[in-house]
Amino acid sequence: AADPPAAMEALVALPQIAQVLSRGPTRASVLLGRTAVQCDVRVVEPVSYGAALQYFTGSKEHNVRLREIAVRRGLRINEYGVYDVTAVPGSVPAGDAAGRRVGGATEEEVYAAVGLPWIPPEIREGQGEIEAALRGELPALVTLEEIRGDLHMHTQWSDGKDTAEAMVRAAASRGYEYCCITDHSQSLKFARGVTVEDLRAHAASVRALSEVAGIRVLMGAEVDILGDGALDYPDDVLAELDLVIGSVHSRFRMPRDEMTKRVIRALEHPHLDVLGHPTGRLIGERPPYDLDIDAVIDAARRSETAIEINASPDRLDLPDVHVRRARECRVFVAIDTDAHQKAHLAFMPYGVGVARRGWMDAAQVLNAWPLAALLDFLAR
């Protein structure tokens, strides 16, 4: 910024700011809105921008490991840059930035100085990413640009706000190759679950939207996983759908063993394609139900069923730590918005962010596949 104090004044005056915790000419800490999320802002010189960005986005564990490598190379890294301390005669006090600057304008310079490729910020957690970088084995994390469609969308047929045509046109406007309409099944009365008769009538009109919107429109359903693990539509009805998402929407307080058996039974159903929002959490409102998620992931691998990364900011479910386990087990995922109106399609970056934090690459993401590959998977 050309005028750091003015930038700080502009920051604290924003309408999103609920409370100013501290501020100075080059730094400020504030709380944002009703969520009370803390936001820290620093102003640095352009030559230090990359170093500051890396310093404040890496976890403590990641940064400690990075600095250990730097010390062995005679370097010091801080938020202002990378310095060769061997160029300064005598000892250099701890925290002193003295030395010859060898990088800091970009994050790439910081990592290159210690012999590493750039490490994406989502995986800077001290969870093996530096070791993977040293081996040249960093994953090619899935990107938003690789997402070809959205497979979980609701309409006015159940509890959505917009018509199916409006939802499909909104998906097409995002450049998607395909999308899937997945209204709630009949048992979910509070969400106006769709009866079998209405589902069949709905299917014909939904599939016809492919011609209208210019993208492939699949007909699916978000089907309740009932208390015993059965699915909420008869098998002959499920067989008529292009895609079936199974989700738990009731009896959240079942004991761990019972809930796990319930979900695994659903995963073993031959018509289930995707397990929806697997832990059932609503962030800040409802904790995840008691579930052996490792057993569920193993069951998904055996049954070749995908697990959803629900991109709704209220869910972000599957959480990133479990996404990484799914990746290691070669379980497929689907990154979906669970959109209940057109505006919700914009949630996709949040789901992609969770997938990236879980080291997920596009090869395991169903809706990063071309349409033909997706249809092959659904027809398996």
The gist of it:
This protein has 380 residues and is of the alpha/beta class. It is built from 14 helices and 13 strands.
How would you explain this protein's 3D organization?
This protein is of the alpha/beta class. It is built from 14 helices and 13 strands. It is elongated, with a radius of gyration of 24 Å. A seven-stranded parallel sheet has the order 7-8-9-10-11-12-13. It has a three-stranded antiparallel sheet with strand order 1-2-3, covered by helices on one side. Strands 4-5-6 form a three-stranded antiparallel sheet. 33% of the residues lie in helices and 18% in strands. Mean pLDDT is 94; it is low at 90-97. α2 (49-57) crosses α4, α10 (256-267) packs parallel to α11 and α12 packs across α13.
What fraction of the residues are assigned to beta strands by DSSP? Answer: 15-25%
The radius of gyration computed from the alpha-carbon positions, rounded to a whole number of angstroms, is 24 Å
Total number of beta strands: 13
- Strands ordered across the widest β-sheet: 7-8-9-10-11-12-13
Largest sheet properties = 7 strands, parallel
The class by helix and strand makeup works out as: alpha/beta
Global shape: elongated
Poorly predicted tracts of residues:
90-97
The total count of helices amounts to: 14
- End-to-end separation in angstroms reads 56 Å
Give the averaged pLDDT, no decimals.
Answer: 94
**Share in helix:** 25-40%
Write the element-wise H/E pattern from the N-terminal end onward.
HEEEHHEEEHHEHEHHEHEHEHEHEHH
What is the fold's blueprint, element by element?
Layout: H1 4-12, E1 17-23, E2 27-32, E3 37-42, H2 49-57, H3 60-72, E4 75-78, E5 81-84, E6 100-103, H4 107-113, H5 129-134, E7 149-153, H6 164-173, E8 178-184, H7 196-207, H8 209-213, E9 216-224, H9 235-240, E10 243-247, H10 256-267, E11 274-275, H11 293-303, E12 306-310, H12 320-328, E13 333-336, H13 348-357, H14 371-378
Parallel strand pairs: 7-8, 8-9, 9-10, 10-11, 11-12, 12-13
Antiparallel strand pairs: 1-2, 2-3, 4-5, 5-6
Helix pairs in contact: 2-4, 10-11, 12-13
